Amino acid sequence: MWSICRKEFRQFFGSLTGLVAVLVFLLMTGLFLFVFPDSSILDYGYASLDKFFELAPWILLFLVPAVTMRSWADEFKSGTFEILQTRPLTAVQLVGGKWLGAFAIVLVALLPTIIYVFSVQALSVDKGIDTGGTIGSYIGLFLLAAVFTAIGTWCSSLTSNPVIAFLLSAFMCFLLYTGFDALSKLPALQGSLDYLLESTGINFHYKSISRGVIDSRDIIYFGSVIAFFLLITNRKIALRP
User: Which of 54, 71, 134, 200 is the most buried (most CB within 10 A)?
Assistant: First the structure.
């Protein structure tokens, strides 16, 4: 499994596309946080990274599909999937290695954003940044990235076309992140199923952890969603001729 993980990691950063994807992510978050007037934390008036944690999931909706779209699609398209099948690895190890490799890439893109914490702390003239809330928000962001990566890996296993895999992954991540929230706000569901639907969505649990309180229910939720998509990916790969 670790050999597959390392292969995915090296292959992504071995191309210019991989480096550009990470740099674009960092550039976009930097511009939104420090340059664009409507979202700049310099105009916010408080030592807080709330704007970043509100914005980051939407950028991840495009970054993660860009990372995962080639995971399986390229293997199917180039015919190297048959070579993978000859290796002494089970379908579970192949899927786990692909997911870990893609997740490691996303983490590499996220880790440099920690410099924003030190920047805001240095610019603060009062008590400084809320450390507990910021740590909780980063944990939530890492879990969100892990879920999006699992979804993207599954979408890539459905097609041999990386572009289709990208579009499908972006749509599925968007749907599972915001779809249940939208349904819960329908007037016909108010007072009955609204809370149940909202709590089924990813955004509900992401916002819960971002408050700085690590609830075991949120951890179990994220772990269950990751396990579900890895399971159906494993099923898809195991049944592929």
Answer: 71
Percent of the chain residues past pLDDT 90, beyond the cut: 27
42 has pLDDT over 70:
no
Euclidean distance between CA atoms 231 and 234, whole angstroms = 5
Helix then strand count (H, E) for the chain reads 12, 0
* Residue 124 identity (one-letter amino acid): S
CA-CA distance, 7 to 70, in Å (whole number)? 13
| CB contact set of 124 (below 8 Å; sequence gap of 6+) | 47
CB atoms within 10 A of CB 98: 27
Query: Which pLDDT score, from 0 to 100, does residue 127 have?
Result: 67
Q: What is the separation, in whole angstroms, between the first and last Cα of the chain? A: 21
Indicate the pTM of the whole model.
Answer: 0.89
**Which of 205, 202, 198 has its CA nearest to residue 181?**
198
Question: C-alpha dihedral over 135, 141, 143, 144, to 10 degrees?
Answer: 160
CB-CB contact of 141 with 202 (8 Å): no
The tally of CA atoms less than 13 A away on the side-chain side of residue 172 is 23
Alpha carbon dihedral 68, 102, 29, 199, in 10-degree steps, equals 80
Q: Collapse the DSSP code of 220 into the 3-class scheme (helix H, G, I; strand E, B; otherwise coil) and give the result.
A: helix
Provide DSSP, 107-125: HHHHGGGGHHHHHHHHH-S
Q: Distances in Å between the alpha carbon of 126 and those of 34, 43, 120, 148?
A: 19, 15, 11, 36
Cβ atoms of 49 and 41 closer than 8 Å: yes
